[in-house]
Design goal:
about 80 residues; Metal Transport, Frataxin, Chain A; alpha+beta; two-stranded antiparallel sheet; 3-stranded antiparallel beta sheet
């Protein structure tokens, strides 16, 4: 199992975008990503100067039906 590092919300959005997810909209400090063929949407917190908590990031990765290793390829 690969080690999941600390990433900002912007970095997480870029990684999921490379994986085929698209920005649907932004509401306040959260960016909503969608992907054709997936029922789930990803809501990524983008707070200035803060990182996305590891538990939140793991849940986002799971909701995207990815593994940590797959996610790390796009970071």
């Amino acid at each position: 199992m690969s080690h999941l590092g600390s990433y900002s919300g912007e970095q997480v959005v870029k990684a999921f975008s490379k994986a085929g997810w698209q920005v649907a909209r932004q509401r306040s400090s959260h960016i909503i990503l969608t992907r054709e063929g997936y029922e789930a949407t990803l809501s990524i917190p983008v707070h200035k100067g803060k990182i996305v908590k590891r538990g939140t990031l793991r849940n986002l990765i799971r909701d995207a039906k990815m593994t940590v290793e797959e996610f790390l390829q796009y970071v």
